[in-house]
Amino acid sequence: MADRGASAPSLPDDWPAHPDHPILALNRLGTFDWDLDAGLFHMDAQAYEVFDLTPEEYDGRPESLAVRVPLTEGSRLDAVVSAAMKDGSENYGAYFRIRRRDGTPRWTHTQGYIRRDETGRPRRVVGVVRDATQELEDSEARSLRAAQDEALRQQTGVVQVVTAALAHARSVQDVIDALKDTQGIPNLGATSLVMGLVEAGRIRLVAEGPVGSFVPGTRITRIDEPYPMGEVVRTLGPRFIESPQEFADGYPILWPHITELHITSAAYLPLIAQGRPIGAMGLLYNDRLGFSTEERAVLVALGSSIAQSLQRAMLFEQEKDLAENLQQAMLPRTIPSVRGADVAVRYRSASGSGTLGRDIGGDWYDLIPLPGGRVGAVIGDVQGHDTHAAAVMGQLRIVLRAYAAEGHAPAAVMARASVFLDELDTDRFATCLYAEADLSTGVVQVVRAGHIDPLVRGADGSCRRVPVEGGLPLGLSAEFKSLEYPVSTLELESGETLLLCTDGLVEQPGTDLGDGMRSLIRQVAEGPEDVRRLADRLIEVAEDRGGDDDVALLLLRRRGPDTAQAVGRLQQHVASGDPEALSLARHMIRAAVRAWGAGERADEIELVADELITNALMHTEGSAIVTLRVLCGGERRLRVEVEDSSSALPRRREAGADGVSGRGLLLVDEITDVWGVEARGGGKAVWCEFRMPEPA
Prior knowledge:
The chain is α+β, with helices and mostly antiparallel strands. Helix 15 (602-619) runs antiparallel to helix 16 (664-671).
């Protein structure tokens, strides 16, 4: 412990060999005078006391001090003095140890002043020696305290870093990952971590130490079993194990299984939230013994922070599970198979929002079988990302499905749904797109309420956006007194795919909606032909991109015809008590029949259709839907269908001589080539067919 170059006291040229300086003696400083030429080392009385010698025991030679100065210390001191003499230094200083008379060590400090002749040769060394034991003990104590304070600051900093990381934890696994991260528990000096959660009077292990450290039988343990985690849960207090022996004595069942981990100490902390234990955590060390008061306080604070984060994560997982179950309950459980089409639907919940309940939204899809082989495809998005949005979505999906199944025209379906949402006790609105497809003809009628446009992928793999004139979002139409929803028509050729989606699939952070739509068009064009694989691909892209919005997706691909195919189709809704609608239906039927080349039987077809419509309006309480279509496949036929909401089947009856009714079905049976009745959901359809000549 040399301190060469330290400032030496200014000594007079006639410094005596045995000075009598009361001030130096008062400060317990001994003096020496070392004659290098004579090889004598003279000391005063205080110096003798420092070396624990008497004048009778010392012969004045420096080497005789070896009785008190150990060989290694003497060699080190000689090296310091020799170096100072050789490099021209005027002074030197060093700490060295001596061995007192009783064998106990003592730290000593010496400071010497080198006197040289005119040639620079060292001739004499004068200086002081003193007892430095207390000084170094105080210095070591200060250094130790400083080191402990620094360690405490580092640990406190780690707790702050861990607490900040835990603030973003959304699951129990996130909490564990944050603790095991390089900025977490390792910086507290622990070699491994073990954590368990309290469940029904037991502790379930959710995290364990290094690979291979699992103790058989401890995956699930009772709280009253003799394990440290059970103890801290029972007592609600921490357990600090400060030595291997204490571990072995306190937990003889557990200790034999972890001896190979070389654990020297451990800290087990109860995880308490709102006054009740939700789990326990253990930090295991292999390079320390014991814990200071400050370290215990830091670890207890860490346990409190972890408990709060763990409770938030558990509540989030419960909320998320509830939300996902609610979302799945609101979406259709199954999608019906559609003759003549391949269908794929997908739903992806939102992610990355960091807020309870934000993983659920109001996006939905639906596929509705309709009379006459038609199908309704729905995509929609209720405003908001919470359970209320999901609840509103579920109600809206059901009523929209009901309106469509009743046979209302697409515009009427959307208008009624908007009125329903406006009258619902909610402040939410919704965007929606409803497409009604006749797969036999490929004709698709589309109605849009504030939603994004659909896409169509061609059989050749190309993809295009289909602009659809739209109305207001659902729930706003009554407020703005606008229930108009224009109907757009497109034709879906064989092999083409209709794509409906919510904006979560289109919107990308940092880009506008147009860029997102162009990106989606490119992805669809480059994707696989199979609709299920294409749906998977699009959802994978959305997953990789992330985002705070959920995604609903519906793909409908029209297959080629494999049965009798309608090459012409017309449908009209006739409301009860609406003579204008009945007159319009008659004109529509007459014009369609002539346009399709069945003019020779136009009067017969119009008469039968009028009879069926009138019967439906007279004998049921609801409206009627009349559908005309031309069927090919073998001989050409024109089919007339009249649907109503009554399940009662029509029956023939004989009309009296003077009767004005009862002849309707007799007339149908006489004029048509074939007729029948089909039950459809809550109602029925009366149908008939007429043979048609082949076109020229």
